[in-house]
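Board notes (copied after class):
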Amino acid sequence: MLTPRTEHLIDLALEEDAGLGDLTSRAIFSGKHRSRAVIDAKQDIVLCGLEVAARVFTRVDPALKTKLIARDGDRVKKGALVLQVEGPTASILTAERTALNFLQRLSGIATQARRYADAVKDTGVRVVDTRKTTPGWRALEKYAVRTGGCHNHRSSLGEHVLIKDNHIAAAGSLTKAVQLCRAAAPHTAKIEVEAKTMAEVKEACRAGAGVILLDNMTPAQVRAAVAVIAGRAQVEVSGGVRFETLRDYALPGVDVISIGALTHSAVAADLSLDLQPARHR
């Protein structure tokens, strides 16, 4: 995930936190003071973002040497060591918060995604994310979703057509919106239509939608809609699905359940950096 965009994001984060330097660390430690530090998990988690965290350290100071003790996607237990860094003490401490911010955020999403993926195991239903991501972090957060075992919905507005309620209202009808999109979109683009009622489900089928998104329906309504669609389109369920009700929606005929909470409501994983003074001259 060390793309130019990620490198830029790291630079922005470091500028935000250490753009004026690290007054405390530089006051206490000379450039010759060296330490070793380890990052360890304070809870059971699915790891994600280790290479990004390691890059933060070397971006602060190329003299810092990092070692990955685990890998993204690993399920680690509380107390497990995941990364080691050695070098100038002040540089380690300058990088600490930014490195942990990336690692905690991405591991939190991966851990959340694993819970959802496990909950629908053997149902044949995919749990996918949405575009409800932290601005600028989308590629990283969607990577974390995949690391945890779930899947990605579209990453941008340009990937495929998704006709929602406001499009329909402004176009005049669901059918009109589909016709306009079919005329303008590339032949490879899927046309997905959001349906809130059974009447809209039937209209979407008649219009030839490739995917029908059942929005804020109950499990019983989803079951009825699946019967109406009868395999003529892929079925996505979204809106109002919580972890506690996920299995209720993983019904035969449902292909995808999209859940914004995979990213927008993930709690940061608990990891910390512990310094072990090594040597100084």
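Comment from the instructor: The mean pLDDT is 96. The radius of gyration is 23 Å.
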